[in-house]
Design a protein that fits this description.
The protein has about 290 residues and is an alpha/beta fold. The protein contains 7 helices and 15 strands.
C-alpha cells in the first residue's frame, strides 16, 4: 500500500499546484533549464518560437514553450542550495507524486535538468568569458546532512580530502553530475569541477569590512586535487542540484558562464554576451 503524504508535508495551493512554484504537472516539460536570476528567464524564453505558459511566484519564475519543436521549461531558483532544494523537490513531486491522492506514482519519471549559471574560476589559465561544464561538485553547505544518504567510493574520498585540505570544521559533500549530459557538451565547453559555496563573500574568500576565517581558501582550492579531480570554479548552487538529482533519480548538469577570474582579479566586460552565447548552446543541445 502506498504511503500518503500529509497536507503539511506536501502543501498544495487551492488550485492543486505545488506550494512554492505554483505549478501543476501539465505546466512543465520533462526538459528543464534552470537559472538563478529571475531576470534571466526571459533571456532564455525570448528565443522560444512560442510560449504556452507563464507563472511568477516569489523568486520562482516559470516559462514553458517550444523551441524548434522541443517543448522546454525554463525556471528560476534564486540564489543558494536552500532554494535549489525547494525547486528540485517540487519539480519531482509534479512528475512522481499523484497530487490528487497524495501518493507516489508506481512508475518514476526522470527529468532532464540543465543549470545555466554564472561562476568565477580559480585557475589562471581559464579565460573570463569561457563556458564550463561541471563533472563533480563539492558542496560546502550542510544540505546533504538532512537526507539519509551515505557517500561511498570516489565521491566520499573527494569530500574527505577536501575537508582535510581546506580545514573545514564539518563534512562537505560531493556528487557527480549526469555523465550523458556531460558528454553532450564536451566539445563546446571546458570540463571542470565546481565548489558550491554557502555564500558569496567570506565562503568564497572575499573580504570587505569584516575579518574572514579562511583568508587563503582560494589558494588552497587551487592546489587541491583528489585522484584526477582538480577544482576549477566557485558558485552557489551546483552541488545542491547534483545531490538532489542523484537522490531523486533525475539527470542534471551544471553549465557555468565564467564571469570572473579570481586569480587575476578580472571580471567580464560583457557579461550579457557571455550568458547569451551559453543559452544558445543549451537550447540547441538539450
Amino acid at each position: 500500500m502506498n504511503h500518503t503524504f500529509s497536507e503539511t508535508d506536501l502543501i498544495l495551493n487551492p488550485d492543486g499546484s505545488v506550494y512554492h512554484l505554483s505549478l501543476r504537472p501539465k505546466d512543465i516539460s520533462d526538459k528543464i533549464i534552470v537559472v538563478g536570476d529571475p531576470g534571466r528567464v526571459h533571456r532564455v524564453s525570448r528565443h522560444f518560437d512560442s510560449i504556452e505558459f507563464e507563472m511568477n511566484k516569489r523568486e520562482f519564475i516559470t516559462h514553458t514553450g517550444k523551441y524548434k519543436n522541443k517543448r522546454l521549461t525554463v525556471i528560476s531558483s534564486g540564489m543558494g542550495t536552500d532554494n535549489v532544494e525547494i525547486l528540485m523537490q517540487e519539480l519531482d513531486a509534479l512528475v512522481n507524486i499523484d497530487l490528487i491522492h497524495r501518493e507516489p506514482k508506481p512508475r518514476k519519471k526522470k527529468l532532464i535538468i540543465i543549470r545555466i549559471g554564472t561562476s568565477g574560476t580559480i585557475r589562471d589559465e581559464i579565460k573570463v568569458g569561457s563556458h564550463l561544464s561541471s563533472e563533480y561538485a563539492i558542496g560546502m553547505d550542510p544540505l546533504i546532512h538532512f537526507y539519509d544518504y551515505k557517500h561511498k567510493g570516489k565521491e566520499r574520498r573527494i569530500a574527505e580530502r577536501f575537508q582535510e585540505e581546506i580545514g573545514l570544521p564539518y563534512q562537505p559533500y560531493c556528487f557527480k553530475g549526469s555523465t550523458g549530459l556531460f558528454e553532450k557538451f564536451k566539445d563546446c565547453t571546458i570540463q571542470g569541477n565546481t565548489v558550491t559555496c554557502p555564500g558569496f563573500y567570506a565562503p568564497q574568500g572575499r573580504q570587505l569590512r569584516t575579518s574572514i576565517r579562511f583568508f587563503d581558501i582560494i589558494k588552497k582550492m587551487q592546489y587541491f586535487h583528489a585522484e584526477d579531480v582538480w577544482l576549477t570554479n566557485l558558485e552557489m548552487e551546483t552541488a545542491g542540484y547534483y545531490a538532489l538529482g542523484k537522490i531523486l533519480g533525475h539527470e542534471v548538469l551544471s553549465l557555468n558562464a565564467i564571469m570572473a577570474n579570481r586569480v587575476k582579479n578580472k571580471f567580464s566586460k560583457n557579461p550579457n554576451k557571455v550568458m547569451d552565447e551559453l543559452i544558445k548552446k543549451v537550447l540547441e543541445r538539450i
